[in-house]
């Protein structure tokens, strides 16, 4: 029976692209089904200017309580259809393009290139690629998650139809630049940090030890990446919740948007929603890595037996 170390070394060989896609899709859907309510809470905090008045949220628990009491439990899953629709290709793109960029950069820069720098480069490139895919789905999701839009949209298709009809089809790519910043920062930080943690932790000697090692690496990577990209995420959320083309829009570009929030609301406002976001993406990053590696190994074992 192969040791966990040997299994891990074998797993370093990338799967064919279509199987990377499958593994990434399973990992992404698993993560979102587990952690989605925290994403709703995060968005509510990011859209809240100041303390939000009498209806504002003072903590994660307060936000959960008010949403359930005033809007119903189902609101915690409002807007889940767009991310579910994009989650499979999104996460598949994240992991598959990260593997492909790794091969490309190694061929370009040589096998002796610094592993840490390589991980950051490939992660950032994968994040930029992923961003182009997710923007329309993110925009529809945020519009649905905003309690101010509760009576405006009756669901995903209705929101999509009304956005295109009233704002134009290009409105679906409102916030693209901010999304590029957000995904480049998160993926670069995530994969780069995973490389450091894996090099630091002792080698696993059992399959369960390997799962635990991967979960710890993914969770630390997800937490670090969230620290890097939250200011960009706050700006992206606010940009995408604005109707396109309105001359009164306050947020248009990412770095000026960061400066505006800092000037008007202070540094802490750039990390609004950080706690629910990190509670989701810290463990969520661990779930992603464990499920992706587990599904990849199952594919190698049962489908691509001689791979």
UniProtKB/TrEMBL annotation:
Main subcellular location: mitochondrion
Residues in Solcar repeats: 15-104, 114-200, 209-298
PANTHER family reported for this sequence: MITOCHONDRIAL 2-OXODICARBOXYLATE CARRIER
Entry protein name: Mitochondrial carrier domain-containing protein
Family note: Belongs to the mitochondrial carrier (TC 2.A.29) family.
Organism: Actinomortierella ambigua
Location within or outside the cell: Mitochondrion inner membrane
Keywords tagged on the record: Membrane, Mitochondrion, Mitochondrion inner membrane, Repeat, Transmembrane, Transmembrane helix, Transport
GO cellular component: mitochondrial inner membrane
Stored SUPFAM superfamilies: Mitochondrial carrier
Keyword flag Transmembrane: yes
């Amino acid at each position: 029976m192969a040791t966990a170390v040997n299994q891990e070394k074998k797993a370093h060989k990338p799967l064919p692209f279509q199987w990377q896609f499958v593994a990434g899709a399973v990992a992404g859907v698993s993560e979102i089904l587990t952690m989605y309510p925290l994403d709703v809470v995060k968005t509510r905090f990011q859209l809240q200017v100041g303390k939000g008045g009498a209806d504002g949220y003072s903590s994660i628990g307060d936000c959960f309580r008010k949403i359930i009491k005033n809007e119903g439990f189902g609101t915690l899953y409002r807007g889940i259809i767009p991310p579910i629709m994009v989650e499979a290709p999104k996460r598949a793109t994240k992991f598959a393009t990260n593997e492909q960029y790794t091969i490309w950069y190694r061929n370009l820069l040589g096998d002796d290139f610094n592993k840490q720098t390589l991980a950051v480069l490939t992660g950032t490139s994968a994040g930029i690629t992923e961003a182009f895919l997710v923007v329309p789905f993110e925009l529809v999701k945020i519009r649905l998650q905003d309690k101010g839009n509760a009576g405006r949209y009756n669901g995903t298709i209705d929101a999509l139809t009304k956005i295109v009809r009233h704002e134009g089809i290009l409105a679906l790519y409102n916030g693209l630049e901010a999304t590029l910043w957000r995904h480049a920062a998160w993926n670069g930080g995530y994969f780069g940090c995973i490389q450091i943690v894996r090099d630091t932790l002792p080698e696993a000697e059992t399959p369960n030890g390997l799962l635990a090692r991967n979960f710890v690496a993914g969770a630390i990577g997800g937490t670090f990446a969230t620290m890097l990209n939250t200011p960009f995420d706050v700006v992206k959320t606010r940009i995408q919740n604005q109707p396109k083309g309105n001359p009164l829009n306050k947020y248009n570009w990412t770095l000026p948007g960061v400066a505006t929030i800092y000037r008007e609301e202070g540094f802490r406002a750039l990390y609004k929603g950080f706690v629910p976001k990190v509670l989701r993406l810290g463990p969520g990053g661990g779930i992603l890595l464990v499920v992706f590696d587990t599904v990849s190994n199952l594919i190698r074992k049962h489908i691509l037996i001689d791979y």
